[in-house]
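Please fill in the sequence for the structure shown.

STRUCTURE ENCODING:
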């Protein structure tokens, strides 16, 4: 039974890795050819931040200024990472969803919100997580736990609107960058206790 499950994961994982590579190549083209894309699609860029670094420094950190909010994000992201570690196809599906989101971000630059981008990421994640498992229970629980913690931090503690609604993919990536920074901060606090 275990060998059957393992053998069915390999084709799914290989498919996801190839899809991620193809989408990464597509994103590389889209993100470096703004003039051609704008000429083809028309319209002006409606969102303020075009790069993740500018978004993270200019918006994301400001919306996460309260330690309690950051720690709630840390808890939610840790739950999501633990779920992905227990089932690597969830990690690959999430990675593919991020690359889908980056591509959609570049193609929907004229929109002032990230609704299409977020919907594309969610659809990609759930579809790709469903393929090897034939169930959405674990992928949905992972999303619910991660976002429930984060959104409590925004709506209850900080009293602001999550960046997910405007910059879905940048916000998702920002959660993981902030998680890593929080690991460093907690490590420094632990070292300083001694």
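FILLED IN BY: designer on duty
SEQUENCE:
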């Amino acid at each position: 039974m275990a060998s059957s499950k393992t053998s069915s994961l390999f084709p799914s994982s290989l498919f996801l890795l190839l899809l991620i590579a193809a989408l990464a190549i597509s994103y590389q083209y889209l993100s470096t050819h703004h003039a051609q894309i704008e000429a083809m699609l028309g319209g002006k860029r409606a969102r303020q931040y075009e790069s993740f670094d500018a978004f993270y420094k200019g918006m994301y950190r400001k919306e996460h200024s309260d330690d309690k909010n950051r720690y709630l994000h840390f808890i939610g992201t840790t739950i999501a990472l633990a779920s992905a570690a227990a089932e690597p196809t969830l990690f690959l599906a999430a990675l593919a969803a991020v690359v889908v989101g980056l591509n959609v971000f570049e193609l929907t630059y004229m929109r002032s919100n990230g609704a299409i981008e977020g919907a594309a990421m969610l659809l990609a994640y759930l579809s790709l997580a469903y393929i090897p498992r034939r169930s959405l229970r674990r992928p949905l629980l992972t999303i619910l736990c991660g976002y429930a913690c984060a959104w409590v931090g925004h709506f209850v503690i900080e009293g602001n609107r999550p960046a997910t609604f405007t910059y879905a993919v940048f916000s998702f990536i920002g959660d993981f960058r902030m998680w890593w920074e929080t690991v460093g901060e907690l490590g420094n606090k632990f070292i300083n206790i001694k």
